[in-house]
Specification:
A hairpin with a 5-residue loop joins strand 5 and strand 6. Helix 1 runs parallel beside helix 4, helix 8 packs parallel to helix 10 and helix 9 packs antiparallel against helix 10. This protein is mostly helical. The strands form two sheets. The chain has a four-stranded mixed sheet with strand order 1-6-5-4. A two-stranded antiparallel sheet has the order 2-3. It is globular and about 75 Å long. The chain has 17 helices and six strands.
């Protein structure tokens, strides 16, 4: 908002000077180019949004032209100046108020509506012949255990969410609700790995192939989310999120373990790797401050944005080694080690969300196996500490210990912790969280996004990210 406000003021001020106005319009493009050429500058800046800057400039210019015309009618020239000064003052007051205001009180017993009733109807139905054959054509993690029914429903839900991949309709949605009817590269990566691990590599390959068609900024990476058609969402408070390429590189690695991929996926690996190398100066520093999976605007370096970058580079290096490109593998492995070292320096030894503040959050699991086979000193303690400090009354976990006090547990974070536990050989802890997830499914058997303080499921059910994580956790326990 600050940049947009400043561009509005610039438009007001320059509305009578067309040449200066053209120069101002070119500045966002120049800044983008400079940050692309100088990664160190990008490190100190949040990703600028050229479209929003131009919109602000255009609005300011239009307002300025109107006010100038009114000034002429009134035979004066003060109205334009007063308006510009008022906007500047308003921005200053709003910013100060935002920084100093106490957060609004939150009801610790908030209830969230449940969505997805028509996914399985009637409740607790069973897969039809076609769906049953699809499940049986692969493997079912957790078969023969108390989690078999949860696993079968979760895998079935992944198939249902992936229906678009069987046609030319686009991408899988995050869940069966309007606000989740988009494709997140992060969620898609976990979906692809779960499909690859369960014998459905054809869908995993197709998902990675379609992901290669998405817009990928060479500096900032994937957008936070896309339309199911693959189109961009231009007016979105979510910004480009650097972790996207990290997760996609992991998904490509896992997919290539079980299937061949077309050249466009190899090209996607190259582009994602180049983007992460560029964003980290070849592994010499952390990526620029920006959003992580919380999807909140920030100017802090966040663990949840940095950890997937290190992991993605490590998986890419392994792929290049397998492909016989040792020079490229050495370069990428060195960058992965560099980012990992920077993470240890900046976030360690406590591994708080923003380094020195922000509390512990679920991103600690992103520094655990399988994403890092040999966790940095202090990571395991921070991961355990997160589970204690972020515990909710309903038995689950908040995204972080300093998340709002609404009593709501988030199942993706619970499942991510369970996956890390299973991958690191802590089976008892993994079973603890799997039991909780199994006990808090929707009435139709799907895994929901949230669980309130009274243990009631809420949000979209199924949530693809949680379903994929449960499948991966059970697979890791096998």
């Amino acid at each position: 908002m600050g940049v947009v406000g400043l561009m509005i003021v610039a438009g007001l001020s320059l509305s009578r000077r067309p040449r200066w106005l053209a120069t101002a319009a070119a500045l966002p493009l120049v800044l983008e180019g400079v940050q692309y050429a100088l990664p160190e500058l990008a490190r100190a800046c949040s990703a600028p949004d050229v479209l929003h800057a131009w919109m602000g400039l255009a609005v300011g210019t239009v307002i300025g032209a109107v006010l100038l015309h009114v000034d002429r009618l009134l035979h004066g020239n003060t109205l334009l100046r007063v308006t510009a000064a008022s906007i500047v003052l308003g921005l200053a007051v709003t910013s100060v108020a935002g920084w100093s205001a106490d957060p609004a009180p939150v009801d610790p017993h908030t209830r969230v509506g449940l969505r997805g009733e028509l996914v399985h109807y009637p409740y607790w139905d069973v897969p039809g012949a076609e769906d049953k054959a699809w499940i049986e054509a692969g493997t079912l993690p957790g078969a023969g255990t108390s989690y078999e029914e949860m696993s079968r429903t979760a895998l079935w839900d992944l198939k249902n969410l992936s229906e678009n991949l069987a046609t030319d309709a686009g991408f899988p949605p995050a869940g069966p609700a309007e606000n989740w009817g988009y494709f997140w590269p992060r969620d898609g990566a976990f979906l692809a790995v779960a499909l690859a691990r369960t014998g459905h590599a054809d869908l995993s390959v197709e998902l990675m192939t379609r992901t290669s068609e998405l817009y990928l900024d060479p500096m900032y990476g994937f957008d936070a989310r896309y339309l199911l058609s693959g189109g961009r969402i231009y007016l979105d408070p979510r910004r480009a999120q650097v972790d996207g390429c990290g997760w996609v590189l992991w998904a490509i690695h896992e997919t290539t373990q079980v299937a061949s991929v077309p050249s466009v996926v190899d090209d996607l690996r190259d582009r994602c790797t180049d983007q992460l190398l560029r964003a980290t100066g070849g592994g010499s520093h952390l990526p620029a401050p920006g959003q992580d999976y919380w999807e909140q605007t920030t100017y802090d370096h966040l663990l949840g944005a940095s950890a997937p970058v290190a992991a993605g580079l490590r998986f890419a290096a392994a792929d290049y080694r397998t492909l016989g490109d040792d020079q490229r593998a050495d370069q990428v492995q060195q960058a992965a080690a560099g980012v990992r070292s920077e993470i240890g320096e900046f976030f360690g030894p406590d591994y708080l969300r923003a380094g020195t503040h922000g509390g512990l959050d679920a991103a600690t699991a992103m520094l655990m196996p399988p994403f890092d086979p040999d966790p940095l000193p202090g990571v395991h303690e921070a991961w355990l500490g997160y589970q204690q400090e972020a515990a909710r009354a309903g038995g689950g976990l908040a995204p972080g210990s300093q998340w709002k006090n609404d009593g709501i547990s988030w199942t993706p974070e619970v499942a991510l912790v369970a996956y890390a536990a299973a991958a690191s050989g802590q089976d008892e802890l993994a079973h603890h969280w799997l039991d909780w997830l199994d006990q808090h499914r929707a009435p139709w058997g799907s895994l929901p996004e949230k669980v309130d303080s009274q243990g009631r499921p809420g949000g979209p059910a199924p949530l693809g990210w949680t379903s994929a994580l449960v499948i991966l956790t059970l697979d890791a326990l096998a």
